[in-house]
Structure formats: C-alpha cells, structure tokens
Amino acid sequence: MKIRVRYFAVFREATGTGLEVIETGAASPSELFSECVGRHPGLQKYTASLVAINDEMAAWDAQLNENDEVLFFPPVAGG
Amino acid sequence: MKIRVRYFAVFREATGTGLEVIETGAASPSELFSECVGRHPGLQKYTASLVAINDEMAAWDAQLNENDEVLFFPPVAGG
Amino acid sequence: MSAFEITGQPIELQVFRARLLDRSCGAYVQFDGWVRDHNEGRKVLQLEYEVYEPLAVRIGQDIIQEALERFGVSHACAIHRSGLMELSEVAVVVGVSSPHRSEAFEACRYIIDQAKIRLPIWKKEHYESGHAEWVNCQRCAHHE
Amino acid sequence: MSAFEITGQPIELQVFRARLLDRSCGAYVQFDGWVRDHNEGRKVLQLEYEVYEPLAVRIGQDIIQEALERFGVSHACAIHRSGLMELSEVAVVVGVSSPHRSEAFEACRYIIDQAKIRLPIWKKEHYESGHAEWVNCQRCAHHE
C-alpha cells in the first residue's frame, strides 16, 4: 500500500527529505520506521520519540492503512 | 522608664495615634501591649501578630530598655 | 537600584523587567499582584497600602537574598506599591531570571509567599458600600 | 485570538499581557523562555525552531484547556516562536491570571512543562564554532 511519510528536524536532515511516498507492507509505525531506517542509513543512529498518523498522535503498534500520512517526530526540546 | 510606641494600620485607627511616648514598668512587649490595651480600649478586640524593637523584629518576651521604640504590627495581608 | 523597593508611583513593568534581562538566562518568571474588584463577596473600589518602609525594605531585601541563595537563581527583584490604588493596578511585582526554569518558578513563589507573611504592609479595602476595612490575612492570624 | 499561537514574528509582550487582564483576578504569573547564550558548555549565537504547526497549535490548545480545567484559573494563553531567533529574544511566553496566586503558579508551570514535552517543536542551536545542532531533550529520550 501507499503511505506518505513526513520527517522533521534532525530526521529531515538525516534523510534529506521532509516528505516521501513509499510502497510498503508495514503493518504499524514501528515496522515502517525500521523500513525507513533501511532506506535512509542516516536515520540509524536516531530513535523516534513520537509518531502521528494523519495529524493525530498514535501508538507505535497502531494499524496503518492505505494513503495514511505518518509523521515521525524526533525527541522534542522546546522553549 | 520611657518607651516610644508605634501603631500601624488598624491599630493606628483604633488608638487614634501612630506614635505615643509612655511611662511604663512593662518588662516585655507582651506586658506593654496589655498596658496599651488598657489605655486604648479600642485595641481590645485585636491581637498583634508581630512586634519589633528599634526596627528589629523581636520576641514577645524580649527585654525592654529605657527609650526603646516598640512597634506593634497587626496581622499583615500584603499583595 | 535596590533588589526590593517600595514606591508610591505606578510600577513601570518594562523598566522592571529590563533589570532582569541576562543573556545567560533561559527562563524568566514574573508574578504580578493585581488589585482585585472583590474580596470575600464584597465589591472593592479601591485599595490602600500602609507600609512601614524602613523595615519593609530591609525584610524585602532579606527575602530576595534568601531566594538567590536557596535556589541559585541569577537575578531576582521585587517592587511593592504603597498608598491608594485603583482596580487592575499592579500592587506588587516579583521577577526572577535564571538559566533554567524550575528554580525560577520556585524562587518567584518563595519571594511572594514570604513577602505576604513577613513584610510590614497592611491592606485597606474600600468597598462599594462606602465602608473601608483593614484586611487580615487568616493564615497570619494563626501564627499569633 | 487563539489561546495558543505560533508566530514567526517577535512576541509583543504588552499585547500578550493585555489579553489576560481581568478585574476579578488578583494574581498574574508569566513565564518567558529566553534564547540563552550557552548550552552544555557551548556558546550559542542563534536559535532556530522548527514547528509542525497543525499539530503544535492543536496540542498547545489542549494543554491550555487542561490547565484551565485542572487548576480552575480564569485565563491562560501562550505563544511560541518559530524560525530563526537572536539571543535574548522571547522564544515562548505563558501567562495565567486567576483570583488567587497558588493556582496561577501551578497552571503556568503545568503549561510550560507539558509544552516542552508534547509540542512538535524542535530546536537547533547555532554555535560560535560555526557548527549547528538539533537539541534533544534528555528527559524526552527516556520516554521512548
């Protein structure tokens, strides 16, 4: 299925892109992130802290559906 | 001995004075306050919360000396 | 300028805040006490502060010094009004700056809490009814 | 105006504060996050915030709403900067007004603490060395 993936901050710089559309069989954000690390070795040294699906915060084992947009968030450090 | 007594806020209004000089045998601020209540019945319904002698906070059983200035503070409610 | 001041004039908040600016600080916490339009169910029109200034300034400076030492913040200061005030005016302001926020919050809270207990400052409320009354802090009464 | 905003422009503190004025409130607590000139031993020259605005605004408004309900304060709002900032600029401001001070302090602290944990906002520090780095919050890393 097609999934849109968004990368922010250090992830965006490590992958060289803010958004990509990929064909994947990943069942969850957790599996999807592993796949993204495979595509972008620069991601290897990072862990995502939070994930959102279609602008809603989501669990790492949530179910992915065709055309979902998945947002991988590096750890935040606001303020 | 001569003691200067200062009254603030509700005490000043209850006694009608901000400062008086009195002849007293009171050994401590505690005894002195009782004496002041005797002189100014308007003070009867109040209790002083803090006392200072010569601009230093003092204990109610501190010793009084000739020419001391005693400050009787009603409860504060700043801010 | 002293770290703790009493003033009969409106407090200039921008001037006050400027004293606490510091490029090494990432956190600033400010508390304002505003003149409220009610107290214990009664409408307040004006507020009056009686301040015994010699002691108030000294104790205020002690409190600021304690906060600096206890919480290790970079800067702290406070100004308290005296005299007659209108609704919504700033009666007291406390500002604290520090590299991190946790100690800035704690120091600011400490200063205003101690100020309310220890400063020889008394508040008289003027009510809509024409009546006026000295306000006693209940908590302080328990200390007698 | 919304209770939580993201802006690319300098925050106007007087305008911000004016939104929280209320004659029924006796207490106002404000937190400012300032751009600090150092972090973990390195000299910082500039700071950059990347904000994912759709979610940041929504989560920010949730946090404000939680604070209003949890602490029963009268008003609360916050503004967070995005983009490039210079030293001493205000990166984030949180303001809370309420009849009494205790809940104003608690609500203000709650909002900034939650904001730092939950908002999708990332900070990049530009150092004197010419190097720049995304800053990770250690505490957040523990949540992974």
Q: What percent of residues of chain A are in strands? A: 25-35%
> What is the CATH-assigned architecture of chain C?
Alpha-Beta Complex
Name the strands of the widest sheet of chain A in spatial order.
2-1-5-3-4
- How many separate helices of chain C? 4
Q: So, CATH architecture of chain A?
A: Roll
- Would you give the CATH topology of chain C? Aldehyde Oxidoreductase, domain 3
Q: Evaluate the radius of gyration of chain A.
A: 12 Å
Please state the overall shape of chain C, judged from the principal axes of the Cα atoms: elongated
Q: Low-confidence segments of chain C, ≥5 residues, pLDDT <50?
A: 138-144
What percentage of residues of chain C falls in helices of 4 or more residues?
A: 25-40%
Q: What's this model, at a glance?
A:
The complex is a heterotetramer, with two copies of chain A (79 residues) and two copies of chain C (144 residues). Chain A has 79 residues and is α+β, with helices and mostly antiparallel strands.
Task: Provide structural commentary.
- The complex is a heterotetramer, with two copies of chain A (79 residues) and two copies of chain C (144 residues).
- By secondary structure, chain A is an alpha+beta fold.
- Chain A has helices at 9-15, 29-39, and strands spanning 2-7, 19-23, 50-53, 56-58, 69-73.
- In chain A, strand 3 and strand 4 (56-58) form a beta hairpin.
- With 144 residues, chain C is of the alpha+beta class.
- Chain C has a single domain, classed as Aldehyde Oxidoreductase, domain 3, CATH 3.90.1170.40.
- Helices cover 33% and strands 38% of the residues of chain C.
- Chain C has four helices and nine strands, in the order βαβββαβββαββα.
- In chain C, the strands form two sheets. In chain C, strands 3, 4, 6, 8 and 9 form a five-stranded antiparallel beta sheet that branches. In chain C, strands 1-5-7-2 form a four-stranded mixed beta sheet.
- In chain C, a hairpin with a 4-residue loop joins strand 8 (121-127) and strand 9.
- The longest helix of chain C is centred in the middle third of the chain and has 19 residues, at 53-71.
- Residues 138-144 of chain C have low confidence and may be disordered.
- The interface between C and D is medium-sized, with 28 and 28 residues.
- Strand 2 of chain C pairs antiparallel with strand 2 (27-34) of chain D, so a sheet runs across the interface.
